[in-house]
């Protein structure tokens, strides 16, 4: 895998930029707010933890705004972006960081015909997958708005980015975390699809960050034993450095998935691309590439039709269903 180690000077390019992010009250999100503030950015962040969110805002009242946000609710995320747009008249970068860990055991060993009658609450899917999907759709709409330096629409194109936080569970198996693992795989799939279209249709680079064990409240129960076993741990500030570094990289960051272990980052997409003939087979890889070219260019394909008509969010069939 290719190392990803963003140069600190790149972060200075975010000075004066408007960044909207979720999960900014604690952990990796709060560390990201700190780093953005240190580099002169204007931050509007959402979180469900109002007490912690207000404390973060109080540290930097002149350039950081907290908005109470439930990422599982579309209107709540929309309100977050509206708050940023109303204050600064633009959005330059957007980071989807909020997440929750596995909440209940859908596949408990005691599962039987009686317990199947109890409908499990899909909160992990709502927060960790539906939330990033909602966030990405709304972010795409706001990020594509081009403004000049005086805040008027129609300015020159600037580097815009969307960074999605997935997990090592987004590309590796995670025993005991089936719903979390499914959601994080979904986030990586979302990025891999959007990286093919949003740069062209919206002028937005799309990337993902996939941290391994990180010292946040989500892993309080196992962090101590994990460290005593000599296993690597990410500090929130180290993951924040990767997130912000991807945004600062601009177009060059598009399509990257950065695996973060022990505070160091590697782009897994480069490795997958370079070894595709090995794990997929050369014949199959070549056939897949031909198929991708076809889908990108053939008028009958959904990808071509959506791109050529500038439509996003819904297919024609979905639009007719919605009236």
UniProtKB/TrEMBL annotation:
The keyword Cytoplasm does not apply. Keywords: NADP, Oxidoreductase. InterPro entries: NAD(P)-bd_dom_sf, Sc_DH/Rdtase_CS, SDR_fam. The keyword NADP applies. It comes from the Eukaryota. One of its GO terms (molecular function) is oxidoreductase activity. Pfam families: adh_short. One of its GO terms (biological process) is secondary metabolite biosynthetic process. PANTHER family: 3-OXOACYL-(ACYL-CARRIER-PROTEIN) REDUCTASE (AFU_ORTHOLOGUE AFUA_6G11210), DEHYDROGENASE, PUTATIVE (AFU_ORTHOLOGUE AFUA_3G00290)-RELATED. Belongs to the short-chain dehydrogenases/reductases (SDR) family. This is 3-hydroxyacyl-CoA dehydrogenase. It comes from Aspergillus ochraceoroseus.
């Amino acid at each position: 895998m290719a190392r990803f180690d963003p140069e600190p000077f790149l972060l200075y390019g975010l000075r004066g930029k408007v960044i909207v992010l979720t999960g900014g009250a604690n952990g990796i999100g709060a560390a990201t707010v700190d780093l953005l503030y240190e580099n002169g950015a204007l931050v509007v962040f959402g979180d469900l933890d109002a007490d912690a969110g207000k404390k973060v805002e109080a540290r930097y009242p002149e350039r950081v705004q907290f908005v109470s946000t439930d990422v599982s609710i579309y209107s709540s995320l929309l309100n977050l972006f509206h708050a940023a747009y109303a204050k600064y008249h633009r959005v330059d970068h957007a980071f989807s960081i909020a997440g929750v860990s596995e909440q209940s055991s859908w596949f408990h060993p005691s599962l039987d015909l009686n317990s199947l009658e109890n409908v499990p609450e899909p909160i992990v899917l709502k927060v960790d997958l539906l939330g990033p999907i909602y966030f990405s759709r709304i972010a795409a709409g706001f990020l594509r708005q081009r403004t000049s330096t005086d805040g008027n629409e129609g300015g020159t194109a600037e580097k815009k980015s969307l960074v999605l936080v997935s997990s090592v569970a987004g590309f590796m198996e995670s025993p005991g975390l089936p719903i979390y693992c499914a959601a994080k795989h979904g986030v990586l799939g979302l990025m891999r699809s959007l990286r093919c279209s949003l740069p062209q249709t919206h002028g937005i680079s799309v990337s993902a960050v996939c941290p391994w064990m990180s010292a946040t409240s989500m892993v309080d129960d196992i962090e101590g034993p994990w460290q005593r076993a000599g296993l690597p741990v990410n500090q929130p500030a180290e993951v924040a450095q990767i997130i912000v570094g991807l945004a600062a990289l601009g177009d060059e960051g598009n399509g990257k998935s950065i695996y973060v272990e022990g505070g160091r980052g590697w782009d897994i997409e480069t490795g997958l691309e370079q070894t595709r003939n090995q794990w997929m087979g050369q014949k199959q890889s070549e056939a897949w590439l031909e198929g991708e070219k076809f889908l990108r260019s053939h008028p009958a394909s959904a990808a071509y039709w959506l791109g050529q008509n500038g439509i996003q969010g819904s297919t024609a069939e979905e639009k007719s269903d919605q009236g």
